[in-house]
């Protein structure tokens, strides 16, 4: 009775503790988690769970007779009902998703216009052919891309109260600059910063700048921007065909271009040093970034080591 009063439990609970101690000693008194073990007595079998999990990873809802392109707990619940006739609440579906190691996240915004067959052809035919031509010319392969930088672009992080997202108010005095860069697997980088819009005239100016740095033919790989394929650029290339040749990536496939990683690096780096009050200062900061990277060839070669562009590191690459 005294023990029960001390611990504020019933006499029956004390009798139970005493019986457990006599049967197993101190270890028998250790607390044990309540309820079923994880995975016990689940409504869906392991095989059924594996099938639903794989369906979510491999297909969109519309591909399985549901609506939309993105999976929600409601959509997954409807899929389970269609397959096995079992209804789940949203939280019930959520428990399975957590058990399966799935999280709710933003999807890859890869364009639906992307042609998988064109990408396959690039890897298996086009890229090897460019490779061979550059080797025959004793030429140099570079990947190039253009990028725009705005003064009101907020891509970094700042300090704020835990649980409360900081608000960065943007000034109405907005300005921007543009840049184009080209990189090689050897750690070389060439760039041009400009304030006008990117068009065929700017592209020709950039091509002339690149050619001026080499005493051998350049094979420049770019996306299918209209300026790259314009009549003006084609005419310029015809007059410089012994110095440079342009090759085009498949449409809507930026992941094949290592220079896209330069753009991402630039946009990540600028917020940490951003002090520009006008377009001239923003252009100067952008140039400083590129000059800094030119002195860091190990970072430039590192861009090519990303999983989706490692194909460029074939040991035969010129």
List keywords for this structure.
318 residues, 3 domains, Nucleotidyltransferase, domain 5, alpha/beta, 5-stranded mixed β-sheet, single chain
Topology:
Blueprint: H1 2-7, H2 11-24, H3 46-58, H4 73-84, H5 90-99, H6 116-137, E1 140-150, E2 176-183, E3 189-194, H7 200-211, E4 218-222, H8 231-239, E5 244-248, H9 259-273, H10 279-294, H11 297-303
Parallel strand pairs: 1-4, 4-5
Antiparallel strand pairs: 1-2, 2-3
Could you describe the 3D structure shown?
The chain is an alpha/beta fold and 318 residues long. It folds into three domains: 1-30, no CATH class; 44-106, no CATH class; 116-154 and 174-313, 2-Layer Sandwich (Nucleotidyltransferase, domain 5), CATH 3.30.420.10. Helices cover 43% and strands 11% of the residues. It has a five-stranded mixed sheet, sandwiched between helices. Helix 8 links the parallel strand 4 (218-222) and strand 5. Helix 7 runs parallel beside helix 8 (231-239) and helix 9 (259-273) packs across helix 10 (279-294). The termini are far apart. The model has no long low-confidence stretch (mean pLDDT 84).
Give the name of the CATH architecture of the largest domain: 2-Layer Sandwich
Major sheet: arrangement of strands: 3-2-1-4-5
Distance between the termini: 89 Å
Instruction: Tell how many strands the DSSP assignment holds.
Output: 5
CATH class of the largest domain: Alpha Beta
- The residue ranges in which pLDDT falls below 50 over 5 or more consecutive positions are none
SSE series: HHHHHHEEEHEHEHHH
- Gyration radius over CA: 30 Å
Strand-residue proportion: 5-15%
Instruction: Briefly note the CATH topology name of the largest domain.
Output: Nucleotidyltransferase, domain 5
């Amino acid at each position: 009775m005294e023990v029960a009063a001390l611990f504020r439990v019933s006499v029956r609970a004390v009798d139970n503790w005493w019986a457990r101690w006599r049967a197993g000693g101190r270890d028998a008194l250790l607390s044990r988690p309540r309820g079923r073990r994880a995975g016990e007595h689940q409504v869906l079998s392991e095989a059924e769970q594996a099938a639903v999990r794989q369906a979510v990873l491999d297909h969109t809802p519309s591909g399985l007779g549901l609506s939309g392109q993105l999976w929600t707990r409601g959509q997954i619940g409807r899929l389970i009902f269609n397959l096995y006739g079992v209804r789940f609440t949203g939280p019930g579906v959520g428990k399975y998703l957590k058990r399966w190691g799935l999280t709710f996240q933003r999807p890859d915004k890869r364009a639906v216009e992307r042609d998988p067959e064109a990408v396959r052809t690039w890897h298996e035919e086009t890229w090897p052919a460019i490779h061979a031509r550059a080797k025959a010319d004793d030429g140099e392969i570079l990947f190039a891309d253009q990028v725009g930088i705005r003064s009101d672009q907020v891509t970094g992080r700042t300090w704020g109260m835990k649980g409360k997202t900081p608000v960065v108010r943007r000034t109405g005095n907005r300005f921007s600059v543009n840049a184009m860069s080209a990189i090689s697997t050897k750690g070389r980088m060439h760039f041009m910063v400009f304030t006008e819009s990117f068009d065929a005239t700017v592209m020709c100016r950039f091509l002339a700048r690149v050619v001026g740095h080499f005493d051998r033919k350049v094979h420049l790989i770019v996306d299918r921007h209209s300026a790259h394929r314009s009549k003006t650029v084609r005419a310029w290339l015809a007059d410089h065909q012994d110095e440079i040749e342009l090759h085009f990536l498949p449409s809507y496939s930026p992941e094949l271009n290592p220079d896209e990683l330069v753009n991402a690096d630039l946009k990540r780096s600028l917020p940490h040093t951003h002090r520009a009050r006008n377009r001239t200062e923003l252009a100067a900061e952008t140039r400083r970034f590129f000059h800094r990277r030119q002195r860091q060839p190990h970072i430039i070669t590192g861009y090519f080591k990303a999983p989706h562009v490692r194909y460029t590191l074939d040991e035969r690459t010129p």
